[in-house]
Amino acid sequence: MTESPGTDPRLRRLNAWRGATRVLSRLAAEHRIGDRLAALAADAGSVYDLDDSVDMYGDGIVGELERRTARALGTEAAVFFPTGTMAQQVALRCWAGRTGNRTVALHPRSHPETDERGAFEAVSGLRTVHPTAGPRLPTADEIRALDEPFGALMLELPLREAGFVLPTWDELTDVVDAARERDAIVHFDGARIWECTSHFGRPLQEIAALADSVYVSFYKSLGGISGAALAGPQSLIDEARAWRHRYGGDLFHQYPTVLGAMLGLERELPRLPEYVAHAKVIAAALAEGLESAGMSWFRVHPGVPHIHRFQVWLPYAPDVLTEASVRLAEETGTTLFHRWFPAPGGPPDIAFTEVTVAAEGLEWTAEDVLTAVAEFAGRLPGRP
Fold first, then answer.
1. One digit per residue, pLDDT tens: the chain, 384 residues?
2. Chain mean position to CA 151
3. Alpha helices, H only, the chain
4. For 213, phi and psi rounded to 5 degrees?
5. CA–CA gap between residue 369 and residue 336 (Å, rounded)
6. Cα-based torsion angle of the residue sequence 330, 331, 332, 335 in order, rounded to the nearest 10 degrees
7. CA-CA distance, 318 to 12, in Å (whole number)?
8. Nearest-angstrom CA–CA distance, 35 and 113
9. How many CB atoms lie within 10 A of CB 1?
């Protein structure tokens, strides 16, 4: 089924995916405002006293979320931010003031370098250097070999653009030790740190304890509306509150966002290890299905996912693969894949998509995946 003249491609995709009855996960964009508000109103009373007064500029319920976040991560304190971009801007500029060095070592495909329009330099006067350009986080040897001083090492756990990849626990501790040898602080971009416990075989508190500060997101894995937190020592968090005000982050009311975050901590956080385990089943079945379908080339990356998200690569143009994905949802009620994207710097006939396995995907068996892959492949051009 192709688009009729005047059809909005985005609306068509959303309608197809909303209408699907079998999905591995739901995109945030698939939710309707009324449904989200109704669910929040129905469930919020289970995580907070709704007879309490609304927050004003970060007090009340916001402070309670900060305390719960600090307990979850095992840090002295935490401070809520409306966005992760703001949280990390503040964290790194606070550390720069303390170390006297405004240079941040990070991966060139980490979020501040790919999705924030150069905000580290433009807004906070920070400078970045890259210990490695490989599709992974830097090694301890690469940190030691960096040929100039840096005040902070920022590690994105996991590194999304490289396929949601993580180092081993020993590799991570070695990298942290190497940064300490360089007299640098360590900051974790932990937007998705919540689901890293299975891979590392360590609790959140032990992972967070490696770093001097940690940023976490309340919507990327926990299903909240938005919002983030910066966690670390009390003195850093106190300073970060002052900078949050200067950056315009002291919002008048934040209770809907905070309630969504509390629900995520209460309900989604305990389920993430289950999602990670099942993502390995789904990834293996996808690889088997693509091979059975006779694909000339494909890649499921990582072959064994590190978290409950991973990439799939296929030798077709992105719009061709997205069309097949939409048609599968429209014609069978099954969403196997969402949108596809061009390979960064690669040829035009290779594309990738991100697969997330959440609560909706737990009912899928390997056989379900094999069937869906065959039906998806049958909707690609030149396929029988």
1. 455 556 799 999 999 999 999 999 999 999 999 999 999 999 999 999 999 999 999 999 999 999 999 999 999 999 999 999 999 999 999 999 999 999 999 999 999 999 999 999 999 999 999 999 999 999 999 999 999 999 999 999 999 999 999 999 999 999 999 999 999 999 999 999 999 999 999 999 999 999 999 999 999 999 999 999 999 999 999 999 999 999 999 999 999 999 999 999 999 999 999 999 999 999 999 999 999 999 989 999 999 999 999 999 999 999 999 999 999 999 999 999 999 999 988 888 999 999 999 999 999 999 999 999 999 999 999 876
2. 25
3. 9-19, 33-43, 61-73, 84-99, 111-114, 119-124, 140-145, 169-181, 197-200, 204-208, 234-246, 255-263, 272-292, 318-332, 366-377
4. -155, 155
5. 8
6. -30
7. 16
8. 35
9. 11
Q: Which candidate, 369, 367, 365, places its Cα nearest to that of 355?
A: 369
Contact 105, 146 (CB under 8 A): yes
Strands 299-301, 341-342: pairing is unpaired
| Distance from C-alpha of 23 to C-alpha of 66, rounded to nearest angstrom | 33
In order of 140, 172, 189, 190, the CA distances from 186 in angstroms are 13, 11, 10, 12
> Can you tell me the distance from the alpha carbon of 83 to that of 216, in angstroms, rounded to the nearest whole number?
10
Q: What is 232-293 written as a DSSP string?
A: E-HHHHHHHHHHHHHTT---S--HHHHHHHHHIIIIIGGGHHHHHHHHHHHHHHHHHHHHHT
Query: b/e per residue, 69-82, with b = 16+ CB within 10 A?
Result: bbebbebebbbbbb
One-letter-per-residue 3-state SS of 275-291: HHHHHHHHHHHHHHHHH
Could you tell me which of 153, 215, 212, 227 has the C-alpha nearest to residue 189? Answer: 215
Q: 3-state SS of 322-373?
A: HHHHHHHHHHHCEECCCCCEECCCCCCCCEEEEEECCHHHHHCCHHHHHHHH
In whole angstroms, how large is the CA radius of gyration of the chain?
Answer: 22
Tokens representing residue 362 in the block: 């737990």
Spatial separation of the C-alpha atoms in residues 31 and 368, rounded to whole Å: 25
pTM value?
0.96
